[in-house]
Amino acid sequence: MKSLKLKLLLVALLCFGCEDFLDCVAGRNPSLPDKSFPVASTSNYYYVDISAEIKNEPRDDDYDYFFEIDEDHLPDGMDYFINNRIVSFEGQPLETGTFDIEVFLYVDGPVRVDYDEDGNAYYEDVLCNHSTFKTYTLVVQ
Fold first, then answer.
1. Residue 82's pLDDT band (boundaries 50, 70, 90)?
2. Which CA distances in Å does 41 have to 23, 55, 85, 102?
3. 77, 82, 75, 91: which is closest to 136 by C-alpha?
4. pTM
5. pLDDT (tens digit, 9 = 90+) per residue, 84-131?
6. What are the beta bridge partners of residue 91?
7. CA angle, corner 93, sides to 89 and 137, nearest 5?
8. Residue in 129, 130, 134, 110 with CA at minimum distance from that of residue 61
9. Helical spans, DSSP H, in 17-70
């Protein structure tokens, strides 16, 4: 069994190339945090934020972050605001219930410039994926 795994790893490295394969195994991907939203109340102002990142990418500030949030899943009285990599949910909810808020993240950013044997420049994307999404649950009492 151990020998089979080693053989599969070697075949993958040969097929995909070491650098690209290891980049994807290491997970250079956009990421949203695993976060539980605090319980909200209709009698208090509410604020929570989430911060996106690109895992295993020390230059993740160099990317552009685009978010999509379905406003229909926010309780009345709540809104969201985007500031670069941070999405803030705030307001005073006017209704009680459980709300599943889907956050979609798309990133676009720098590419690595490389050169072939003839000295010609070509561009290489350093991300394995450019999008992700996560569902957050907001409970309003």
1. very high
2. 43, 34, 27, 20
3. 75
4. 0.76
5. 999 999 999 999 999 999 999 999 987 777 888 998 887 778 788 999
6. 46, 78
7. 55
8. 110
9. 18-26
